[in-house]
Task: structure prediction
Amino acid sequence: MSSFRHILIIFFTLGSIGSQAQPHHTDYKRCDVELNKPYIKSYLTDSWNILKSPVRWRAKQWAIAGAVSGATIIACTQDDVIRDFFQRHRIHRADKAAQYFFEPLGKGIVALSVGAGFYAVGEISGQAGAKRAGLTAVKAIALTSVFTYAIKYASQRHDPPDNTPPDPGIWEGPFGSFQNTSFPSGHSSVVFALAAVIASEYNEGIWVPAIVYSLASLVAISRVYEDEHWASDVIFGSALGFFTGKFVYMSTVKCPQLVMIPAVSAGGHPGFTMVYQLR
Result:
């Protein structure tokens, strides 16, 4: 039971951090997002900015990265225990919910369809927020998928059903068969990327973030429940999707700002320096 409680705490803590961190108002101006050439180009620039972002991390970012790594490592030591608990406590009703609702919800094509749906509604109704959420979600899901599969093929971890008995310690990367793609969980990373964007856009209250992060957490947990992934797979995948979604949202929607800074000229005359802050 303790292992079950631990994984629930990890996922719902991640969800609650995201939902409670949403301000009831934004302290920055949100730009409209359009399906145009700059938007398409931003797929490459955002990818590059994410890859190089660690060089600009401060103590807080390194602490978060350390916490995620630590949680993943701890889960790795308990993967077989957590798996055994879930498999011994499966029930028919939960099996159906996982199979017909939570598992499809984490598929990339479904998540992309949700993003496209937001965009379509915004385009038809003229709601800038829906368009912004839709286009940003599609980009976040796409980039998250690329990062997820790059790690999958580099690590090449065996899924639980790949061995008898299941062994969480088999990693064949980076020069294996490219058929073992357990780490990290793609369903978890995709659904958390989508949740992060929707929660960031609709953050006026706590209900939308709480609902989307709770659903994302249940999708991730269902991957362990259905014996498709190890707990450490879904923990790392969830964190990857969450932080990629948050990064992409801020990079995409935060408008550049013109800031005036008091300054003194070479001749000693007071004045202002104008700084154009990029996204």
Remarks:
- The beta strands are 257-264, 270-277.
- The CA atoms of residues 86 and 157 lie 20 Å apart.
